[in-house]
DNA sequence: CTCAAAGTAACCGTAACGGTTACATTGAAT
DNA sequence: ATTCAATGTAACCGTTACGGTTACTTTGAG
């Protein structure tokens, strides 16, 4: 299966917050949900992960409660978001253990582990090159048409 | 979620076949299953995909039926296997459509699409650098210890 | 004290995956 | 032509994870 849509949602949230960042308000999850098109509860779950990773700030209680970016958009890379939201490794090894008395079965897991880690690294390096600021620009550019 | 363990299984199969390739026999799915540690039916499903992609040959009927590599191990890259077995894109977009009347909601999907495709490309480029022959060598190396 | 909003637990429907059983089909060998 | 070892495939199952929802508690600014 693929990288969960949760990652897409997280990027959407941050891009939206970045777009409105100049107002320097806290935005409630309901308002963000209006743009993303999903439920506020689901968003809060994700926002909680982003907060733990230090990407957003939360304000509880009273009027004006909600969320805003903890850093400037150009200081949040897509890799930061990936690591905040995706916890599982990209590749799965065998579910049931391979036969250790088979020459190949015995050594293939560490062999795969190496190349899997390298490949995941290649993906992450690419994600590290892009920031939320880039995404705001690109979204506005595409939205025009 | 992660890239399905099916990919790991496919690599295991091909590595195993490559290891025994010098015998130039067809090997039945039951024997391969003995090394991989999973069911022959599951293996045949995957082997079918590998055959469609031209990576293995199949022999039906009678004694000596089974599977073998269609090319030399150094001519099968891990990307070939990936494309034979994984059909879905790596990243998922929104499940429910974002709000098109929101400036960000309107343009974010094509913006994400671009960076998602680039990132998947980065992953694939890395996989293209490794071959089944490399995997045989690396497995034997790790198995020694 | 009020009240808008976050936090959280519980539950649900859906989908995909790995695994298994069962049966039809193939085709080399004799 | 028969045999039979193996593939091909459909059907089904249990488990897991995900997105979505409801309902309730907690927070804390005003």
Automatic annotation (TrEMBL), chains A, B:
Signal peptide: none annotated. PROSITE patterns: HTH_RRF2_2. Pfam families: Rrf2 (PF02082). InterPro entries: Tscrpt_reg_Rrf2, WH-like_DNA-bd_sf, WH_DNA-bd_sf. This is Rrf2 family transcriptional regulator. The lineage of its organism: Bacteria, Bacillati, Bacillota, Bacilli, Bacillales. SUPFAM superfamilies: Winged helix' DNA-binding domain.
